[in-house]
Amino acid sequence: MGISKFEDVCVKDRILLHLSRFKNTEIGQEYNVPFDITQDGIGMVVGISRAHASLSLKQLIDKGMVVCWQAHMKGQKGKRLVYGIASNGAEKVQEIEKELAKAGITTEALLDMKNCNPEVKWNSLSEEDRDTFGKACTIRVAIPRSELPDTRTGIIPTDMNGKTCIQRYTAEAFLKNATEEQRRNWHSWAADWWIGSDDPQERLYHLIAAGRNLEACRLAVRCSFIFLSNPNEDTLSLLEQLKTNEKFEGDILWIRCEAAVAMRRFEYAKKLCDRLGQYDEKRKSTVLAQIAFANKEYKKAYQYAEMADSMMPDLLSSVIMAHCFLRLGNVETAEEIVKELYMSTKGTYHGYDVDLIFELKAKIAYIRNDRKGCMAELTKAWQTAPPFRKAAYQIAMDALECGKEVIFPFLENSVSLKGIDV
What is the pTM of this model? Predict the structure, then answer.
């Protein structure tokens, strides 16, 4: 046979090696048969098309090395053709494994990455295939295998839908074998792969890792609404790593502050405020107003919000002032602010804070013992809220429906105002 390198193992031998791994599946077994032994499964592991797999399998069946039958796959009702290794095939596998052992090649390293040592896998690949594997390991989600070049010296594992299937820890261990320049290039490729996607967070991650900081800054500012609609630790971590210049520093600091406030990371946001004030005093005041309100310092919160509003009126500063009046017992003034705010923004304001107007109206209705009005406004708040606030509105609606105390989500854990008597 004469195997000295990965390319010496032909397709039919790879198929036999693959089928030999399913010793727990009996020939003729009708139910709970793995997808891996169908034509599609075999093709994905061996790295060939379904048509090529069908042709090679027919040749192996004719030689008496493989048998086929119809069976039910796990979780599926219909039957499919599946394949198993015959006794002649098992003998052939033993011969192949002896040759592989002489060449220092393991079956796992030859067929896939799932169980092999990443360093061994790296050393077994050609330069071209290392590049392909590197791309597959760099991108953090499963992508169609067809998006990557074909490989000759190794097989990228895929699932039954034809998407890459590499455990994150395996991918990271594999990438450690690459140079810094290789990793940057793969991140750059991944960043471009995400162009046009509705998930800018992944593109931001790859742009930063690729060292394309100017593009990363532009993306973060352009998509600030999306990032603030779904604040999370990954976003904050990415923005911390981002090397900004004078032009973008203020905007990036503001996004970090607002994301931190939304995540109740108030001390973190407060530490950033001094730097934010060097670029935008209004935004600094708005952030400090939110922090003060969360700390139940309502007079201080009102002062910060009023300061921000005097520089340039906006929705958030007005919302904070109205909430402060409610907490200080001045419902009438809060109601006036809300009415003016609603009329001035109706039909023109589109942003991730528009739900806060409806939440305020719901809270006023709650204080006035208007159950129906409160539910109507909470429903509107839920409909217009960014994803991270929807659950809180749903909880509030459920509590109102059951006659329990309503917890409004704006920067506090409970409402101590007199509400509907139950």
Answer: 0.70
